Amino acid sequence: MTEPHLWWYISRASAIIAWVLMTASVVWGILLSTRVMRRVDNPAWLQDLHRFLGGTMLIMVGLHMVSLIFDKWLAFTPTEVLVPFATDFKALPVALGILAFYILVAVQGSSLLMNRLPRKFWKGVHYSSFAALILISFHAGFTGTDVGSLWYKIVAVSLIAIASIAIIIRISTGTATRPARKIDAKRAAPGGASPVPQPEQRGLTVVSATPVADGVLGIRLEGPDRALLPLWHPGAHLTLHLPNGLERQYSLCGDPADRHHYDIAVLRTIDSEGGSEWIHQNVVPGMTIQVSGPLNHFELEPAAEYLFIAGGIGITPMKAMIESLPAQRDWSLVYVGRSRRTMAFAAELEARYAGRVLIQASDERTTSLNLDEVVGRAVGQVYCCGPESLMSAVAARVPAERMHLERFVALDRAARPATPVHVECRKSRKAFDVPAGQSILDALEENGLPVLGSCRKGVCGTCEVRVLAGEPEHLDSVMDDADKESLRIMYPCVSRATTPGLVLNI
Ligand code: FES
Fold it and tell me: pLDDT tens for residues 315-345?
């Protein structure tokens, strides 16, 4: 004979399991995003686990709601289960549970569409899962028929305590963010248009400035009173706003877990336009440098195995990536350069990671580097940064889905002869023609629109805008064209359009 309260038992069990899974999913997400578990948080399955917990939790919530309808004891109708305040039974706590359900649907739905949504929007929706957890706690605390039992109280108090501690950790450790935009009233656009926004800058103190190789200056920066600096992930770069008016981007090369310092290494380039030369001549301990960022267009994807290939100063982002990997992760580094004297961190990396680091100095080699052999053995993700010739050669040998490149100089891309393009800015309700001889970024600034520029060479990624209609002609070197297409973004400092017009989300 069927247990008369079968559906009621299912409803209670699924509700408690959903609450546990919800708490676990939120806590796991917090641990991953704050990098508290930095020594083990890289493999893809750890990230997948967060999604799995969230998805399973939503299934349990659905089962809880369906079983309430089938249960004959309280006899909820579908309307009472789906519409807040449609029932007289503990109307407010039930309504809070229903509201939490819709929030959770939005969180899971936006996660599935993550690559198609603006990151800010996705993040906002994702953060609402904290609100859903609080609503669920009230819902479970006031509606459950087990509320009076000791074991239920123990479970409830434990879940609420765990979630509260995790949320406090999340708030106190901060997050890796893109720089906020602020309006500098002094820099108004011509014609009385709205002021052009400037990246939010902060003054950091130079703690040390010491040579780390011939022609390479290692610089350590820290905030006022050793304040915690914004979180960053390997592959991120800082923009230095130099007193001579130049802006230069440098990859962070320290340990991402060190929240008190930013480390960069600056190569003095022979054809310096005044950036690296100024830094080498003027930066001394104690001085303050204005910086913005960090920004990241070269993120380390979760993988079981990595091959890092660095050429010259291209070692800087690779060093941060290596620092962040758990000890047991499978990785190797091939580091090429003219001579060990000019190769920053070569001796340190070789000593710390013996057997994993292959130094290829030209003045020590009798034969040239066999890239086919180096790349042929790699089955995991390949990260490469260095001279264009090295990156092109590596990219030609690695499937695009496993290849990650970071460029310091603009790629010389074959472009059609520039033609005028009509640009419509949806949010600002402005439209104008950009003549062939003007960059779209310059035209946006001229019209007082809120887009930041920095390198103006299609390298740094600062000027990123979202495209709502039209087809951009990507001429930058920030990221793969396929990624830009899927994200519907472009970099207007260099890119143009293959269609007569573009509609931008600014
Ligand atoms: S300003 Fe650097 S990519 Fe456009």
Answer: 999 999 998 887 778 899 999 998 999 999 9
Q: Is the pTM of this model over 0.85?
A: no
CA of 440 to the centre of ligand 1 (A): 11
Residue 192 gets which letter from DSSP? G
Measured from the Cα of 492, ligand 1's closest atom is 4
Q: Are residues 267 and 327 in the same domain?
A: no
Instruction: For residue 135, report the distance from its CA to the centre of ligand 1, in Å.
Output: 43
pLDDT at residue 432, as a whole number? 94
Residues 154 and 212 in one domain: no
- Cα-trace Rg, the chain: 27
Which residues of the chain have a pLDDT value below 50?
1, 175-198
- Do 162 and 17 share a structural domain? yes
**Is 1 within a domain?**
no
78 CA to middle of ligand 1, Å? 53
CATH code of the domain containing 376: 3.40.50.80
DSSP secondary structure, 461-502, as one string: -TT-EEEEES-EE----SS-HHHHHHHTEE-TTT-EESSSEE
User: What's the pLDDT score for residue 293?
Assistant: 82
Last residue of a domain, one of 406, 437, 465: 406
Query: Which residues, judged by CB distance below 6 Å to any ligand atom, belong to the binding site of ligand 1?
Result: 453-456, 458-463, 476, 478, 491, 493
